[in-house]
């Protein structure tokens, strides 16, 4: 039923559906379940050590013999200022939160991601078939990955970013609309100017590049799938929809917040990590946005809350948990990943026939 076969052939998948590689929430079980349903399962590897990443890839391969996808962050985003320390007001806020949860002193920030160069070598050594990057990618990195036999995807949030990625040699572009949950993939200019809705962004990117385009942002069900394919996308990428699956690694408090939230509950904020990202608003976001002094740079801002977030999740306290979510969150369903993919395919087929009057 899929008229555009370019991405299906490129990625060797049956359906034009990609499960977003959400770092910290994806698991080998989720990847394998999505793969088994004929879509592309993905693992977010930004926070994995090289040794841990190799082990995860081998675990995925033990569960599925289908192609899968691993995501890394642009190595340039790993720059870590070891001298960065919170200002007075941020320090006081964090100390208050630690006291409320009966934690010890606020920890100093430490590096959380990468090293991306070593992670990439693991992916190439393990012959991972599809690799994607967030926050941009260089032509040299694309060439290195191509030399290793991998297909390369990367996110764009504007038409100019998409043009750059095509020139860099990527095989397909993920057009990330403003509705998308998690970190914005913006790498060229102010992210505020790049908050372009999926319906506006996708057809413009499709018109400007020759490589296949993957639509992402706010897509939760067959209506979103069919709409994005009608806009010219060759496939869709869903993240928040898969957070409702039992195979995803999602703390109970976050899962409950997802099931209770509507679009207006989410916001794009730098308070969580130091980079703009869409998440469910809570006390932590509200109060840190109001402190009136600069936050720590990324990723130190995320690092300094690591013990707070971990303990809050353990206690079931949503006030201090980073609950990434897209604006389509109100449509989330609790169901197995393979069932979700099957439902998306079946309902998309029915919708296309209904629109055609069949």
Helix content: 25-40%
Could you give the count of β-strands?
A: 11
Low-confidence stretches: none
Tell the overall outline. globular
Q: What integer is the average pLDDT?
A: 96
Give me the Rg, rounded. Answer: 20 Å
Strand order of the largest sheet: 1-9-8-6-5-4-3-2
Distance between the ends: 14 Å
In terms of quaternary structure, the protein is single chain
Strand content: 5-15%
What's the number of helices? Answer: 14
Q: What is the succession of H and E elements?
A: HEHEHEHHEHEHEEHEHEHEEHHHH
Major sheet characteristics:
8 strands, parallel
Structural summary, described in words:
With 358 residues, the chain is an alpha/beta fold. It has 14 helices and 11 strands. Helix 2 packs parallel to helix 3 and helix 9 crosses helix 14.
Chart the SSEs and their pairings.
Elements: H1 6-11, E1 17-19, H2 28-36, E2 42-44, H3 50-63, E3 69-73, H4 88-100, H5 116-125, E4 130-134, H6 139-147, E5 151-156, H7 159-168, E6 172-176, E7 182-183, H8 198-208, E8 213-216, H9 222-230, E9 235-238, H10 252-260, E10 266-269, E11 277-280, H11 283-289, H12 300-303, H13 306-315, H14 337-355
Parallel strand pairs: 1-9, 2-3, 3-4, 4-5, 5-6, 6-8, 8-9
Antiparallel strand pairs: 7-11, 10-11
């Amino acid at each position: 039923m899929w008229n555009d076969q370019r991405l299906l052939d490129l990625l060797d998948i049956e359906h034009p559906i990609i499960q977003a590689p959400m770092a910290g929430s994806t698991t080998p079980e989720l990847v394998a379940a999505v793969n088994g349903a004929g879509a592309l399962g993905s693992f977010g590897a930004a926070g994995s050590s090289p040794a841990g990443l190799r082990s995860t890839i081998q675990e995925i391969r033990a569960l599925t013999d289908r192609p899968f996808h691993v995501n890394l962050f642009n190595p340039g985003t790993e720059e870590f200022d070891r001298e960065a320390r919170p200002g007075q007001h941020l320090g006081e806020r964090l100390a208050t939160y630690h006291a409320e949860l009966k934690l010890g002193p606020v920890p100093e920030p430490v590096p959380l991601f990468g090293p991306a160069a070593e992670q990439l070598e693991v992916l190439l050594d393990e012959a991972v078939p599809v690799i994607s990057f967030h926050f941009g990618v260089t032509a040299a990195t694309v060439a290195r990955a191509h030399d290793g036999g991998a297909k390369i995807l990367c996110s764009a949030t504007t038409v100019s970013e998409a043009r750059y990625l095509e020139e860099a040699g990527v095989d397909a572009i993920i057009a990330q609309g403003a509705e998308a949950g998690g970190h914005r993939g913006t790498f060229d200019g102010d992210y505020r100017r790049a908050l372009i809705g999926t319906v506006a962004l996708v057809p413009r990117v499709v018109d400007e590049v020759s490589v296949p385009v993957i639509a992402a942002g706010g897509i939760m069900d067959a209506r979103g799938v069919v709409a994005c394919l009608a806009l010219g996308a060759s496939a869709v990428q869903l993240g928040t929809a898969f957070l409702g699956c039992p195979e995803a690694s999602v703390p109970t408090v976050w899962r409950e917040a997802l099931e209770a939230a509507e679009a207006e509950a989410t916001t794009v904020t730098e308070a969580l990590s130091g980079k703009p990202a869409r998440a469910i608003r809570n006390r932590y976001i509200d109060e840190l946005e109001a402190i009136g002094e600069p936050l720590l740079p990324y990723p130190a801002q995320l690092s300094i809350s690591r013990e707070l977030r971990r303990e809050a999740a353990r206690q079931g306290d949503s006030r201090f948990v980073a609950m990434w979510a897209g604006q389509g969150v109100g449509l989330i369903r609790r169901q197995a990943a393979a069932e979700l993919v099957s439902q998306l395919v079946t309902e998309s087929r029915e919708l296309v026939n209904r629109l055609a009057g069949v």
